[in-house]
Write a structure and sequence with these properties.
- With 433 residues, the chain is α/β, with parallel strands linked by helices.
- The protein is 31% helix and 20% strand.
- The chain folds into two domains: 205 residues, UDP-n-acetylglucosamine1-carboxyvinyl-transferase, Chain (Alpha-beta prism); 215 residues, Enolpyruvate transferase domain (UDP-n-acetylglucosamine1-carboxyvinyl-transferase, Chain, Alpha-beta prism).
- Helix 3 packs parallel to helix 5 and helix 4 packs parallel to helix 5.
- The longest helix has 14 residues.
- The protein is globular and about 65 Å long.
Length: 433
């Protein structure tokens, strides 16, 4: 259950360096991908270390509505998918994806590959603004009957399923690699080999994650995945029995930043280093190392977040504490995520007294003295809440007085329900260390 939080949460600063061990939640991206692949398997699958949050709840509940059995044990952090033979036998279903991009795109593709049924898929009003056109058009090329019942190219959708025929398909997934990942995961269930041609380059890390997970669930690509052309042969996924979900690398970024903000050191249990992880966001640790080791005379630090943009807010929020200006690039596509993240970050940093130059694909932030008594607007975006929560841990006045407050901190329930509870636990343990 999500801890009760006030509408406006003052952040108590750390007066001692952060110390202790952190148990991170499971990866949202891996949990939702694994749930979809488990539904397409031939035998039961148990996910261990799974994330329990709004986004994964929406995915699991949608699978239940489609006829699959999903047993959840939040205390044990396990999700078990069974009764795959009963999937898609319900005839029709209303699927709600909330504001979960992974659930929205993955479930759209899953319903399209179903052998039969009518499925209505929708989300919250903001989800109706998020990019879906590339996936919708690709599914239609493969024979899917996908109807936009509102604005063309967006939610809500009505899918009259009769499977996918396969063949050649062109897709533009430049606005969200989730659209390509969704297509890749269902492609083995098409009637013939799917030949995917990319209309534009796609951010690679999450696609590589998808490929790695497909392999773990028994799919072996018979053709290489080239940069702009991917061949996916018909195949059946095979249950691995148990799949262990990695700790979330994006969630880890906040506590890695907390080390820098408080001059502390934390142990992040089970977090895999960049070269061993399926998660591209694990590279954020190397970005912080560049920040730490930047020479004082270095006028401007450039960081390209194209391949791991979910973590750009983590760095941008703590930019006021850095020893020089920073330019963050490769973030234009984040204007179409939970909110316009580029404009929102610029707005909140300016409230804090910072010098910010906003361009379509970048933010240039020059540190200035921080203003106190600021209320941070989160725009119902979990990453704003967590990123600025870490900035608030800086002891601005030197006496532990809160100087920054977060509006609607409960929006963290999307991916990290107990974030602020865990942050306070770390603070208390650091005081006692």
């Amino acid at each position: 259950m999500t801890p009760a939080l006030p509408d406006l949460l003052p952040i108590p600063p750390f007066t001692r360096p952060a110390r202790g061990e952190i148990t991170l939640p499971g990866s949202k991206s891996l949990t939702n991908r694994a749930l979809l692949l488990a539904a397409l398997c031939d035998q039961p699958v148990t996910l261990t270390g799974a994330l329990f949050s709004e986004d994964t709840h929406l995915m699991a509940e949608a699978l239940r509505k489609l006829g699959f059995t999903v047993e959840a044990d939040e205390n044990a952090l396990t999700l078990r998918v069974t009764d795959q033979a009963n999937g898609f036998t319900v005839g029709e279903a209303d699927i709600f994806a909330g504001l979960a991009g992974t659930a929205a795109r993955f479930l759209t593709a899953l319903c399209a590959v179903a052998p039969r049924g009518i499925y209505r898929v929708d989300g919250v009003p903001q989800m109706r603004k998020r990019p879906m056109k590339g996936l919708i058009e690709a599914l239609r090329q493969l024979g899917a009957d996908v109807r936009c019942t509102g604005e063309e190219g967006f939610f809500p959708l009505e899918i009259h399923a009769h499977g996918l025929r396969g063949g050649a398909v062109d897709i533009d997934a430049s606005e969200s690699s989730q659209m390509l990942s969704a297509l890749l995961m269902v492609a083995p269930r098409a009637k013939t080999t799917v030949e995917i041609r990319l209309k534009a380059p796609v951010r690679q890390p999450f696609v590589l994650m998808t490929r790695g997970l497909m392999h773990h669930f028994g799919f072996n690509a018979k053709h290489p995945f080239r940069s702009l052309e991917l061949h996916v042969a018909t195949d059946r996924y095979r249950s691995p029995g148990t799949y262990s979900v990695e700790p979330d690398a994006t969630a880890a970024s906040y506590f890695l930043a907390l080390e820098l903000v408080t001059h502390g050191k934390l142990a992040l249990a089970g977090l895999r280093p960049f070269k061993e992880s399926l998660q591209g966001d694990s590279v954020f640790a190397t970005v912080l190392e560049r920040v730490r080791t930047r020479p004082p005379q270095h006028p401007l630090l450039l960081v390209d977040f194209t391949e791991f943009s979910d973590t750009f807010l983590t760095l941008a929020a703590i930019a006021p504490l850095l020893n020089g200006a920073i330019q963050i690039t490769g973030i234009a596509h984040t204007r179409k995520q939970e909110t316009d993240r580029v404009a929102g970050m610029a707005r909140e940093l300016r409230k804090l007294g910072q010098d910010v130059v906003e361009e379509h694909d970048s933010l240039t932030i020059t540190p200035r003295p921080l203003k106190s008594g600021i209320e941070i607007e989160t725009y119902d975006d979990h990453r704003f809440a967590m990123s600025f929560g870490i900035l608030g841990c800086h002891d601005l006045h030197g006496d532990g007085r809160p100087w920054l407050s977060i509006r609607n901190p409960a929006c963290c329930a999307k991916t990290f329900p107990n974030f602020f509870e865990l942050l306070e636990t770390v603070r208390q343990k650091s005081l006692a260390a």
